[in-house]
């Protein structure tokens, strides 16, 4: 039988083919947001956003479309998958959110009408009737996360096997647990025999050691950093709950096979010392294509320069080829002062830059923290420690944020870096010949008390928009404010307070990050997820 060409199809058939082809193209073009800040480099850039442009993001055409209520605070960044086949509910674009009340929700990402007014599915990891609850904040000795600790970090999704991985903390009849769950993205059903209880010991003589070993503490160790999926392994990082008088803790990185949930590696930042937490204000461990992991540690013991194995206040590179081992690092020359004054390097997130072709240092890592210094490092030779200064690294810029501290992760787009420090403005630094401009090339006019972790949406190299959440009112239960700024000029295009109550977001949660995907912006708050887009 001769194949009929498209040109000879009937009108109805032609429309059908066009519709189907459009669906295929749309499916192929839709963005997946499966990890914190969009990628394992943690660049924060979505360069496939063809709907939201600077010309249409304004109060007249853009605003809040709908909200979905949840049962706890959303510290975790929303994740997004298009075209998920939900049993008995059909095909949906889905936004996934995880709460401090130990619940994971899957919502239709496009509307809350009809059957979509309820979650597509929801799972809970608590059962008060059985004595299983979240961890009360008072049990941790702090109110840094209040009133409960459940799921704090951003999960990670493997779209290839349709699994969402998430760490949940619980209190069970007086004992404390953290578990790694593997959930089917279509139903929330546990997979691979999960969940698995997180436990680990490594050799060490540091704080809390017993018989020459230190052990992971499910109460004291705060799982703040976003999860990392790399080469079939889920990597999880920990710090503490924030009080510096809780000295008996260590930063940890622990890896689990994504298909068996078997533990494959465990590493402590300060095995023979103390502290060295991996907070990074919620940023995940960064990873390169060669299978190396990067993170910035907070206050803690540092003795690597004298042959020790403690890396407090350091930018660390771990190899995953043989477990988890340090293969390179950088520590600021004034690490002792920074640590003593609680000026963590690790208050900000580590970012890896795309390959800088034709430069002396094409593979770069970047970071900044409470001391307001930007450090630019060569990932192949990070510089170690020099007691006389930081001249051994590629570049350092002091007082980069007007003397303010950074509690966030910068974003990268089109050879530009975007920083929003506390009590400061958005500052855009250019990158030329593998170096940052010494001064910003653009500065916004909007100061944010808490700073923000920005993300950038664009259509390739055009239509760049910086998105960020203002969470200054977290202590008074006031609303978050979504800001959109031009990615080249830092001029504000829109904020969610401009239209009165119409676009008001839910109560603010510190360190929250918006997710931009396929024409919509998803904002996690203390009691709901708000969805913004074109009217």
Main attributes?
535 residues, mainly beta, Methanol Dehydrogenase, Chain A, 5-stranded antiparallel sheet, 5% helix
Give an overview in words.
This protein is mostly beta strands and 535 residues long. It contains three helices and 40 strands. The strands form ten sheets. The chain has a five-stranded mixed β-sheet with strand order 1-34-35-36-37, with no helix packed on it. Strands 7, 10, 11, 12 and 13 form a five-stranded antiparallel β-sheet that branches. Strands 20-21-22-23-27 form a five-stranded mixed β-sheet, with no helix packed on it. A hairpin with a 2-residue loop joins strand 11 (163-172) and strand 12 (175-184).
Structural class: mainly beta
Total count of domains: 1
Strand order across the largest sheet = 1-34-35-36-37
Second-tier CATH architecture: 8 Propeller
Indicate the CATH topology: Methanol Dehydrogenase, Chain A
Strand content: 35-45%
Q: What is the radius of gyration? A: 23 Å
Net shape:
globular
> Between the first and last Cα atoms, what is the distance in angstroms?
49 Å
> So, the CATH homologous superfamily?
Quinoprotein alcohol dehydrogenase-like superfamily
Number of helices: 3
Low-confidence spans? 1-28
Helix content: under 10%
